[in-house]
Specification:
Layout lengths: L2 H24 L5 H18 L29 E5 L8 E5 H20 L3 H36 L1
Antiparallel strand pairs: 1-2
Helix pairs in contact: 1-2, 1-3, 1-4, 2-4, 3-4
Length: 156
C-alpha cells in the first residue's frame, strides 16, 4: 500500500474517531437523535477501522493526562447481554453500556493524541491493534443495543 493512500485512510479514520468522540460527548440516552447519531458514527467507525493500514506497533508512552477519563453521562447505566463467542451457545455475558462506551472512547483518544502530536502512523498502528484486541469488540456489542433502543422508540 502506498504511503499517500495509507495517510488518506489514517486521516479519514482520525476524522471519524473525532466525530465519534463528539457524539459520545453529546450522548443523552433519553434523546433519540443523539442515540441515532452515535450508532451511525460507530457503524462508520467500524467500516473505517477495517481500512486502517497494517503498521507495526512501536511502544510509545502516552501521557494519560492528555486522555479524558469518560463522561459523567446523564443516564443510569444500562446493562445488556452479549455473546462473547458466536460459535459457543454458552458464551453469554452481561455488559455495561457506560463501560463499553468509555473503553471505546479511551482507546480512540489515545490514537487521537498521537495523531495530533504528528504521529499518524503510530496512531493508526494503535487504533488498529486495539480495534482487534479491545474496542472493536465493545463497538460490535454496543451497536445492536443502541439499535434496539432506536427501534423500540421508533416502532412504539
Amino acid at each position: 500500500m502506498r504511503r499517500k493512500y495509507k495517510l488518506q485512510m489514517i486521516h479519514r479514520f482520525y476524522h471519524q474517531a473525532k466525530t465519534c468522540c463528539g457524539c459520545l460527548e453529546r450522548l443523552d440516552i433519553h434523546h433519540q437523535k443523539t442515540v441515532e447519531e452515535l450508532n451511525a458514527s460507530l457503524a462508520r467507525l467500524y467500516a473505517d477501522a477495517l481500512q486502517l493500514p497494517d503498521i507495526p506497533v512501536r511502544r510509545r508512552k502516552i501521557e494519560d493526562d492528555a486522555i479524558r477519563h469518560g463522561h459523567p453521562w446523564n443516564f443510569q447505566d444500562e446493562s445488556f447481554w452479549v455473546v462473547m463467542n458466536p460459535l459457543d451457545a454458552t458464551s453469554f455475558c452481561q455488559s455495561s453500556l457506560k463501560d463499553a462506551l468509555h473503553d471505546i472512547e479511551h482507546d480512540l483518544e489515545h490514537g487521537i493524541t498521537l495523531y495530533e502530536s504528528g504521529e499518524p502512523f503510530a496512531a493508526a498502528a494503535l487504533w488498529r491493534m486495539f480495534f482487534f484486541l479491545h474496542w472493536g469488540a465493545h463497538l460490535v456489542e454496543v451497536v445492536p443495543f443502541l439499535h434496539t433502543i432506536i427501534k423500540g422508540r421508533t416502532i412504539s
